[in-house]
């Protein structure tokens, strides 16, 4: 009887463990995302005695794509992911009535690591990694007597961090909600310096292989 009880207990534990891991998150996935992207940056313009600081802000519609691979250890899920967000955001800063600075950000590509803990079909996770963005800046000057325009284009490297939740709706269909914060350091020109930061909030759908 003692051996039967031990065997029954062992089988029960194994059965519970197996049931807890019936949701398979492992494998590759590829998907698309849609949402919003916004910025709020400080622009510093050095003067003869003081530095003038102005703010630029913009928000807009964003679309993108993502792909990655999940490794699973029990309920712990982790793996790499690459993503891209596209949206021609345009920010403007005004200095008195003579100067306008316009910044444009068109695309952001990120290479991230993700980690989360699965609750059956739901996977809350954190993410972070390297990002690269395309920025262009246009400065226009017009005081009524003289006018000129200068433009600068640069690739910016930075980092991002965020989090979200995945829902495995079916064996192969995955739904996602995610937030990310991006920092691309300071964009410097001959006449002003700009802190480049932006945020995204997106919803996504993916096919899990």
Automatic annotation (TrEMBL):
Keywords assigned: Cell outer membrane, Membrane, Signal, Transmembrane, Transmembrane beta strand
Predominant cellular place of this UniProt entry's protein: membrane
Domain Outer membrane protein beta-barrel residues, every copy: 8-209
Signal peptide (residue range): 1-20
SUPFAM superfamilies in UniProt: OMPA-like (SSF56925)
Subcellular location: Cell outer membrane
Top-level division of the source organism's lineage: Bacteria
Any GO CC annotation of this UniProt entry: cell outer membrane
Family per similarity comment: Belongs to the Omp25/RopB family.
Protein name per the record: Porin family protein
Organism, scientific name: Brucella pseudogrignonensis
